[in-house]
């Protein structure tokens, strides 16, 4: 019986695999009429914008478009988004499309893909315009790998002059924007040229599927290469009126390593600018923050400035020393927020926290981000809603006055960029009777203390009387 079932399952599976392969082969009849790629290298976080005009030159309708990456690049993709352009000229709007990482059997040279689901099936002869944005982290290689305090930082970036694609590309162009006009060298793939801070590759006509032409650009980039190797954000909800945030940072300057000794005199003479080191960090916090502190292993650091208005707060912090390539800083930022700005009740009676994901530091990459939402005691059945894939599990935390401990929703993600700073929610059930748990514990503690004092006094008296 069981064997029979297994055979059937295998057959069904086989059928589905076959079906999906069929639809894939038919979508190979896609061609890209025009591709425009803009690569922004002005930060240490690389942003790539691609506009694709796709056409179905086959016979069956196409449901998805594949976007290819060489295997070495795909691990650096922190974010991949796609949208369809709807309407013409002034009435243009963008509709976000579903994307998911995909592997294909027999992909040439281990090519990896993202599959973009189209809004409507693309019939024979029809065209659609897609906008793609992807973000790459840790993809600039400092060269030289070590520089002295007064030197500028130069980096390499590797890519292809031609868009890697499983489809035939009729016409394409690539524009690369560098942070300054100092470009040491770039691979020439005619026609290619440079004007100011822009490198232009193309236009190239009629490139067959999987065309690739490696390029190397060597340029100056003195932006702060601010990378948090590990960030733990603890968000503790107390139904007594506040949310307490504690953020533990392990920050590193991920640029060219610092060579030689650090001279504070030289640093101050040059006003601390001109090189790749950085002195200040800017954290964007919600409006109405209070009780802000900033400390490291040694203690509280007072050199921070908080500016607040009704929309946001900006906290500028200054580590004890400027950060040079390879240097690290470990610190903690803490603050309180009013509960009513972030905790709500959903129509079905559940409570939910609506908070911002990601890292508050600007232009910063987080290698590993852990968000711990500590729910009030007595909360049940939590569910977290995050608009991108994350890992989740539950923990229990005990603090003083806790009876059964607090449920902690732990959300983890690798390779986080500022574009991940979007709202996420944690829903949970809460029985208001638990609001009384803490006061009851306090009251009983006082009562016990009272009883103990009285009995102590009694004993004391009895000794006196003797
Ligand atoms: C695979 O890589 C090799 C070496 O880099 C290259 O010569 C070849 O054209 C590639 N094949 C395809 C199908 O991209
Ligand atoms: C640091 O500052 C915070 C908030 O102002 C305060 O609660 C804490 O006691 C201070 N710690 C030290 C070691 O000064
Ligand atoms: C969460 O907050 C954001 C603004 O910060 C808002 O746009 C969004 O609608 C809220 N989501 C929910 C489910 O309340």
Topology:
Layout: H1 2-27, E1 30-40, E2 46-56, E3 62-69, H2 71-74, E4 77-86, E5 93-97, E6 99-102, E7 112-122, E8 127-136, E9 141-142, E10 146-148, E11 154-160, E12 168-177, E13 183-186, E14 192-195, E15 198-207, E16 214-220, E17 226-238, E18 242-253, E19 257-259, H3 264-269, E20 281-285, E21 290-296, E22 304-308, E23 313-317, E24 328-338, E25 343-345, E26 351-356, E27 365-374, E28 379-385, E29 391-397, E30 406-416, E31 423-430, H4 437-465
Parallel strand pairs: 1-12, 10-19, 17-27
Antiparallel strand pairs: 1-2, 2-8, 3-7, 4-5, 4-8, 6-7, 9-11, 11-16, 12-15, 13-16, 14-15, 17-18, 18-24, 20-23, 21-24, 22-23, 25-26, 26-31, 27-30, 28-31, 29-30
The structure holds 2-acetamido-2-deoxy-beta-D-glucopyranose (3 copies).
Family: Belongs to the OST1 family.
Pfam family, one: Ribophorin_I
Transmembrane segments: 440-459
Structure description:
The protein has 466 residues and is mostly beta strands. It has two domains: 27-220, tricorn interacting facor f3 domain (Immunoglobulin-like, Sandwich), CATH 2.60.40; 226-439, tricorn interacting facor f3 domain (Immunoglobulin-like, Sandwich), CATH 2.60.40. 14% of the residues lie in helices and 49% in strands. It contains four helices and 31 strands. It has helices at residues 2-27, 71-74, 264-269, 437-465, and strands spanning 30-40, 46-56, 62-69, 77-86, 93-97, 99-102, 112-122, 127-136, 141-142, 146-148, 154-160, 168-177, 183-186, 192-195, 198-207, 214-220, 226-238, 242-253, 257-259, 281-285, 290-296, 304-308, 313-317, 328-338, 343-345, 351-356, 365-374, 379-385, 391-397, 406-416, 423-430. An eight-stranded mixed beta sheet has the order 5-4-8-2-1-12-15-14, with no helix packed on it. A seven-stranded mixed beta sheet has the order 21-24-18-17-27-30-29, with no helix packed on it. A four-stranded antiparallel beta sheet has the order 9-11-16-13, with no helix packed on it. A hairpin with a 5-residue loop joins strand 1 and strand 2 (46-56). It is globular. It binds 2-acetamido-2-deoxy-beta-D-glucopyranose (3 copies). Keywords: Endoplasmic reticulum, Membrane, Signal, Transmembrane, Transmembrane helix. One of its GO terms (cellular component) is oligosaccharyltransferase complex. This is Dolichyl-diphosphooligosaccharide--protein glycosyltransferase subunit 1. Belongs to the OST1 family. Component of the oligosaccharyltransferase (OST) complex.
């Amino acid at each position: 019986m069981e064997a029979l079932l297994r055979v059937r399952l295998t057959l069904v599976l086989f059928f589905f695999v076959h079906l999906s392969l069929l639809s894939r082969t038919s979508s190979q009849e896609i061609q890209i009429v025009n591709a425009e790629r803009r690569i922004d290298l002005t930060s240490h976080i690389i942003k790539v914008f691609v506009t694709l005009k796709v056409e179905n030159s086959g016979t069956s309708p196409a449901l998805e478009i594949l976007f290819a990456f060489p295997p070495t690049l795909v691990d650096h993709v922190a974010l991949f988004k796609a949208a369809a352009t709807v309407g013409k000229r002034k009435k243009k709007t963008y509709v976000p499309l579903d994307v998911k990482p995909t592997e294909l059997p027999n992909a040439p040279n281990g090519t990896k893909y993202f599959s973009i689901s189209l809004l409507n099936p693309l019939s024979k002869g029809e065209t659609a315009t897609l906008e793609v944005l992807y973000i790459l982290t840790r993809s600039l290689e400092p060269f030289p790998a070590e520089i002295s305090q007064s030197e500028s930082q130069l980096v390499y970036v590797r890519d292809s002059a031609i868009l890697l694609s499983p489809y035939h590309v009729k016409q394409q162009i690539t524009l690369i924007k560098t942070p300054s006009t100092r470009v040491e060298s770039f691979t020439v793939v005619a026609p290619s040229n440079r004007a100011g801070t822009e490198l232009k590759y193309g236009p190239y006509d009629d490139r067959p599927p999987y065309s690739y032409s490696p390029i190397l650009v060597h340029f100056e980039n003195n932006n702060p290469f601010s990378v948090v190797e590990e960030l733990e954000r603890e968000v503790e909800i107390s139904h007594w009126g506040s949310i307490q945030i504690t953020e533990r940072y392990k920050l590193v300057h991920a640029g060219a390593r610092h060579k030689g000794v650090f001279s504070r005199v030289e640093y101050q003479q040059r006003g601390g600018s001109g090189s790749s080191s950085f002195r200040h960090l800017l954290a964007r916090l919600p409006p109405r923050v209070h009780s802000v502190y900033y400390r490291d292993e040694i203690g509280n650091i007072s050199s921070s400035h908080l500016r607040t208005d009704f929309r946001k707060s900006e906290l500028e912090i200054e580590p004890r020393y400027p950060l040079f390539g390879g240097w690290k800083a470990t610190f903690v930022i803490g603050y309180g927020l009013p509960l009513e700005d972030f905790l709500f009740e959903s129509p079905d009676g559940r409570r939910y926290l609506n908070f911002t994901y990601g890292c508050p530091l600007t232009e910063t990459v987080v290698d590993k981000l852990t968000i711990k939402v500590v729910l009030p005691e007595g909360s049940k059945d939590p569910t977290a809603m995050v608009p991108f894939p994350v890992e989740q599990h539950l923990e229990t935390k005990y603090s003083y006055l806790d009876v059964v401990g607090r449920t902690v929703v732990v959300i983890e993600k690798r390779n986080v960029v500022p574009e991940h700073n979007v709202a996420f929610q944690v829903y949970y059930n809460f029985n208001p009777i638990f609001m009384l748990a803490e006061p009851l514990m306090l009251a009983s503690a006082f009562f016990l203390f009272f009883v103990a004092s009285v009995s102590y006094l009694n004993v004391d008296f009895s000794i006196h009387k003797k």
